[in-house]
Amino acid sequence: MTDKTAFRLIVVITIAIPAAVLALYLIPKPDSVPAWATHCPMLNAFLNGTCTVLLTASYFAIRRKKVSLHKTLNITAFTLSALFLVSYVAYHFFGKETLFPKDNPLRPLYFFILSSHIICSAIVLPMVLLTFYRGLTNQVVKHRKLARWTLPIWLYVTITGVVVYLMISPYYPF
Question: What are the φ and ψ backbone dihedral angles of 30, each rounded to 5 degrees?
Fold first, then answer.
């Protein structure tokens, strides 16, 4: 695959995923949530938390020049993030939106964390894809340059994903 083809694919994915997620909020929901779908939010938090650990371990691995371990950890984090996306889409296809209570004094904090999480997840998506591509194609200089920005944002997204789950989970209707 050429860099030009990879870049075009990254652009398509970067547009398609947020568009698909937005569409999930616009389509009518079924009357009931399948039992399996009720486990998706916890699974998503677990996947996010696991990605946090993997990304952190990957950072320390590359600092110690353990390139093979770094690569394995990043491929695993990337795969789990893709699985997260599948689970997220599945849940939001079937599940009703859970609202944070209006009378909860933590509501402004919840919305700040949620908003920053959503914005950063949209920003980091093409960064992750391009950083991943640069690493897999052994474009080390370009990979390092972009990874310096990608890692902290990706970590923020994975950590705030867990925080959002912990804050909203008491209000799930199941």
Answer: -65, 160
